[in-house]
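Risk mitigation, structural track. In case the binding assays with manganese (II) ion fail to produce interpretable data, a predicted complex structure has been prepared as a fallback.
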Amino acid sequence: MYRGRTTLSKFLIEQLHEVTDDGQLAGLLIDVAAAVKTIAAMTAKGGLGGYLGAIDNTNVQGEVQKKLDVLANDAVIGSCEWGGMLAGMLSEELEDPYAIPAEYKRGRYLLNFDPLDGSSNIDVNVSVGTIFSVLVHDKETAPDTADFLQIGRRQIAAGYAIYGPATMLVLTVGKGTHGFTLDREVGNFILTHPDLMIPADTSEFAINTSNERFWEPPITRYVDECKAGKTGVRGRDFNMRWIASMVADVHRILMRGGVFMYPRDTKDPSKPGRLRLLYEANPIGFIIEQAGGAASFGRGPILDHPAQSPHQRVPVILGSKNEVERIERYHAEYDAGTDKPYASPLFQERSLYRSEA
Ligand code: F6P
Ligand code: MN
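Fallback model:
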């Protein structure tokens, strides 16, 4: 029954056979997968595990930490620090990079991660995830903060786990995007979704519209056009979904297409976006590009966005290629002063209607 199934280890051995690192990258990804299994077990216990709720602390982002944020962070560190594959780690939950303790061998990779993405959903039993990015550290010395600030294009592996009805691990080592499902009884990740490809076109978008008044005009233009549906310039109806777990929204887009936006907004002028570049936008951007989609900050590819600080935030627009390109065009037209977003008579009517209302 189990013959013919591709386990994560088998898959990594096949995909990474040309990488001359004594199996270190494969070993690291197996260790990450071990942490994912631990986190999956904790999230699956729900209210029975005593893991729900917040602790009396805020993280470096100013966000209230959930118990599971801290436990998931410990699971990743505990699983990955000892193997001799890593030179350091950077976590959403820690202000500074985590140095590998002196008792362990130091390796040539860096791991940036968000241990529990979407953790506001934990207490309401909605899907959450773990996101990770692997970079090369090709120096003898221990990494300092600047060594983590690499552009996304330099990632050599990235992935996420989604703790949903099934636990899945989706990853790329730069040879396509592939999905594995956790066989809980056996404890193995099995390749169930090889070579994921995002359809170039879509009629589904994801954005938190409660922020609408803070958006830039190109985003308002795009969303207004989607909402106008058949009666507007797009000539077809769109559907909207928002789970508020980036991993879960991205997973849906990988499965059936769509566009996800957490754009630049003016809600908090010190934050040019909500999502963090190094352990959210970059790894997800890599996965999306490897699945034939596009990942943009509105004015260029996320993977080329300069990294300036460990917890820096960036605007994120990603998913089906043709839609992302359209939104980039709207930004370009807006920046050049050539957009006429409400030129269509229908939009004129809508705005008139609005001002009367
Ligand atoms: O990690 C940040 C995050 O939780 C994402 O997973 C999610 O997409 C977003 O924030 C949700 O933001 P909001 O609470 O504004 O909907
Ligand atoms: Mn997150």
